[in-house]
Amino acid sequence: MTTHTAPTIGMVSLGCSKNQVDAERILGLLRADGFEIISDAASCDAVIINTCGFIDDAKKESIEAILEFARMKESGKVKAVVVTGCLAERYREEVAKELPEADVVVGIGKNSEIAQIIRRALGGERVLAFGDKNDLALSGERVLTNAPYFAYLKVAEGCDNCCTYCAIPLIRGHFRSRPMEDVLEEARQLAQWGVQEINVVAQDTTRYGQDIYGKLILPELLEKLCEIPGFRWVRILYCYPERVTEELLQVMKRQPKIVNYMDIPIQHCSGKILSQMNRRDNRETLTALMKRVREVLPDVTLRTTLITGFPGETEEDYTELCDFVEEIGFERLGCFTYSQEEGTVAGGREDQLEDEVKRRRAEGIMERQMVIAARHNETCIGRILEVLNEGYDTEMQSWYGRSPMDAPDIDTRVYFTTHRKPAIGEFVQVRITDSMDYDLVGEELGINLQ
Predict the structure, then answer these.
(1) At what angle are helices 218-226 and 246-254 packed, to 10 degrees?
(2) Among 41, 87, 98, 354, which is disulfide-ready with 10 (CB 3.0 to 4.6 Å)?
(3) pLDDT, mean of each 10-residue run, the chain (450 residues)
(4) Nearest C-alpha neighbor of 149 from the set 218, 93, 201, 196
(5) DSSP 43
(6) Are 243 and 216 in contact (CB under 8 A)?
(7) Which phi and psi angles does 191 have, rounded to 5°?
(8) Cα 116 from Cα 189, distance rounded (Å)
């Protein structure tokens, strides 16, 4: 009697949390089709590289990963290299032609067929499969790829903001919300799996519902998420500034499960630059918004992202941005250099800046931010923070985790000592005693909050 072993599959997912959710849906499809999912991607029958194609650095990282696994295929470690995600969607013909090492190149519109496609590749066929972006399924079974105590909940796909520097609409298509009951059904499933922190994401999370319900209903969704037993923290990521409504702030104030954390990517503060980015804000409106957020949520952690070196950005524009960063004092901030992207309005402009100028300006912003972050950390000394334990750092000889002020993967850590061995995913109370660069240091009070 012949026994057939299930083909093994591994996944390398690059880029943002929204791409990670896509990867987890792909793994759900493959598991349902009989594939065995293993964590060591280097020893699988087939490895999927779920690529990012947003900016130059991300594209380079994706290509390097493809070539790395192609070398493993040559040495017999893997049988098929599968490329999907944003790079495959955005550069269909180029990826297929320039990377012949890829056995499969599949666009996001064909993710639903990926199991059959990979089986064909394992049979020796090279498969190039592309479809309509809108065919990307927004729901379906997932296999969580991060620690089991937190998850991302993607409530929409695509974007209609059409910022002139951004290729996301070209890659992901128009903004499409998921029906609320569909979102809540998935959230209840995640809670049953033991997820305690839910991170609500989309390209523009605050726009949720406008396309299918005719109004912004993120506040209503958040209220319903807070009713689900099991969730302790509900976090909102990627809030577009002009859609941070009073209703949203009041829901955050009213609901104790919603952490006092707002991620509002503003990109710049100069009215001239923002207008050229096709964004509707200026320094005055952004200052007023941040002031109002802090009035309603006095203990809020404000995170933002900025771009330096947009075409035509002058030293005066940059100085204004530096002054704004100092004035607002964001608790969390990331700064990126402008990436010239094909197919975008800004990418076609002739007044591109030198890479060295972009880098110098980004470094200047981050130098200021380090001082601001240190100042904020000093105010935390003596406070008692709820911390989600994520592991033990042998070099530091300390446990570490995240407070409500810190989103997964992008923010800082709280290192703490304790006289016991707390469980991974356990919430503990930590008294902050010191700070270290961007991170905080403290000791557990010995009170278990579970």
Answers:
(1) 10
(2) 41
(3) 70 86 91 88 85 77 82 78 87 82 88 90 87 86 90 94 90 93 96 96 95 96 96 96 96 97 96 95 96 96 97 96 97 95 92 96 96 94 96 93 94 94 95 92 72
(4) 196
(5) G
(6) yes
(7) -65, -40
(8) 27
